Automatic annotation (TrEMBL):
Protein name in the entry: VOC family protein
Gene3D superfamilies, per the entry: 2,3-Dihydroxybiphenyl 1,2-Dioxygenase, domain 1
Residue intervals of the VOC domain: 4-128
Amino acid sequence: MPATMIFVNLPVKDLDAAKAFWEKVGYSCNPQFSDDRCACLVISDTIHAMLLTEARFKEFTHKAITDTSTSTEALLCLSAGSRDEVDALVGAAVAAGASEPRPAQDHGFMYGRAFEDLDGHTWEIMWMDPAAVQG
């Protein structure tokens, strides 16, 4: 059975700026599923974010787009292989223009940080000690 894939659809104010931001963080877009109104951000083989211009995003919903400066639509969490990977990814995002909304959370067996991308979407990056999840 093939792995389930996820395509998270996110509205962006400036598609070119969003693509440039994510390239600086270290990701790329799949041109096969991108055009002048959307970009398919490849996070892993099974995780993608569809960056949609607000006009394109509105074609998929009758609801208002969340104002991420005052509301949180979702917390998007990605796992990392180590604490250093958490720090590297969040550091790259901040260097590319993201903001860090809170200090790191260190629970010993679990470590996480977060950043808000250029459009205010909150991304949480976390590492968990594999020994903590073994039965």
